[in-house]
Design goal:
Blueprint (H helix, E strand, L loop, with lengths): L7 E2 L4 E6 L2 E6 L1 H7 L2 E5 L6 E2 L4 E7 L3 E5 L4 E6 L1 H5 L3 H4 L8 E5 L11 H8 L2
Antiparallel strand pairs: 1-2, 2-3, 3-9, 4-6, 5-8, 6-7, 8-9
């Protein structure tokens, strides 16, 4: 299981890559593996500012539909257009080409509340 050292994680299996005041958000390798083949991703919150823990969209796999949650509060600036036409990118490359949204982080102190790689490994038993 791939758990990159340069990311922060949530207990709901989202990841956050921080770049200054901006961040990229996606789901973890563990989450995509648990979901199985991802067939559709719906994100209709572009331009909205959401709080930490609020749902920014849904991810549909063959077996289930799940909400995806904000790891920190922020304004949703864009969605990865590649995953609209190729949602399987989330299965193939969850930390790279399978990123979901780019945000402007509204409260940087919330980043410190997220899990580091070691804590996330403990959570998923890796």
């Amino acid at each position: 299981m791939n758990i990159p050292e340069n990311l922060k994680y949530t207990k709901d299996h989202e990841w956050l890559k921080v770049e200054g005041e901006y961040g990229y958000v996606g789901i973890t390798d563990f989450a995509q593996n648990e979901l199985g083949d991802i067939v559709f991703i719906e994100i209709e919150t572009i331009g909205e500012t959401l709080k930490k823990g609020e749902s920014f969209g849904t991810i549909e796999a063959v077996k289930t539909v799940s909400d995806i949650f904000m790891p920190v509060g922020g304004e949703i600036l864009e969605m990865n257009s590649d995953i609209e036409s190729s949602p399987e990118l989330v299965n193939k490359d969850p930390y790279g080409k399978g990123w979901m949204i780019r945000i402007r982080i509204t409260d940087p102190s919330e980043i410190d509340e997220l899990l580091g790689p070691d804590a996330y490994r403990d959570l998923v038993g890796a």
